[in-house]
Amino acid sequence: MSELVPEPRPKPAVPMKPVSINSNLLGYIGIDTIIEQMRKKTMKTGFDFNIMVVGQSGLGKSTLVNTLFKSQVSRKASSWNREEKIPKTVEIKAIGHVIEEGGVKMKLTVIDTPGFGDQINNENCWEPIEKYINEQYEKFLKEEVNIARKKRIPDTRVHCCLYFISPTGHSLRPLDLEFMKHLSKVVNIIPVIAKADTMTLEEKSEFKQRVRKELEVNGIEFYPQKEFDEDLEDKTENDKIRQESMPFAVVGSDREYQVNGKRVLGRKTPWGIIEVENLNHCEFALLRDFVIRTHLQDLKEVTHNIHYETYRAKRLNDNGGLPPVSVDTEESHDSNP
């Protein structure tokens, strides 16, 4: 009998190290045009950005968002009169707008939460907000697992939550801590001190330091979260924001006044005009640059890659690894008697 000779095991493939080629030697390739291609595509399709505002009534939430995007994107609650009742529970109101600037279209959705923190008993008033945020993740997940998927899934996920802190000058309320403790795990929270013009410069500086300390002591992570810094450059830039700017002390106004021959957004007081975009008066410009000009794309990416992925993994795990029931199937079940 002939001996069986075992077949030699194939050696595992070793990935080749990328070889750096000086493209100048071979002529122009054109890979640098990818940025321009992406820009053109984005200009055609536009993009979504969904921002939530949370805080007690009277802190100027709607005014600040209108100032942020220089248009009437959020309805003011100033029309409220004594005959109308304060909502007994937290309501969620989403208002969508299309803003265009320089040929780029942005579908902006502002999610307001009237009734938050306005009750005598505010216990668990953050729950409807967390439920809404998770419902948007669920909606996106169901669209993703559909066999016939849409080419572009509508994105209603909350990319950013501006949390308005009352300018007491003392410390955070238990409600503030409770909200941020629960919601920081599911959404990017950016804390802002509202109506900062009611405090002196010294009071503002001390209050900001106190708020940062309280958030740290209570283990509350606000955006930009330390663990998501991608490199040293990110860490250096974000450390400065975390240690100096947060929480942003802001003033909002959509009224214009004449100051030194220029039209400026501001608030008129007996002692002068508080200019919204003047860094010597408040930190609105820092907040605007942070949310729109430097970190908007990152807010969307952290929402998708971290918060949504955490929800998705938990949801699939709870479902035994199976995708959730599609929207169409669910609706057909509901319609059956």
UniProtKB/TrEMBL annotation:
Name the UniProt record assigns to this protein: Neuronal-specific septin-3
PANTHER family: SEPTIN
SUPFAM superfamilies per record: P-loop containing nucleoside triphosphate hydrolases
Lineage, uppermost ranks: Eukaryota, Metazoa, Chordata, Craniata, Vertebrata
Compartment(s): Cytoplasm
InterPro entries, alphabetized: G_SEPTIN_dom (IPR030379), P-loop_NTPase (IPR027417), Septin (IPR016491), Septin3 (IPR008114)
Molecular function terms, GO-annotated: GTP binding
Name of the gene encoding the protein in the UniProt record: Septin3
Residue ranges annotated for the Septin-type G domain, each copy included: 45-318
Primary site of residence: cytoplasm
CDD domains: CDC_Septin (cd01850)
Organism: Nannospalax galili
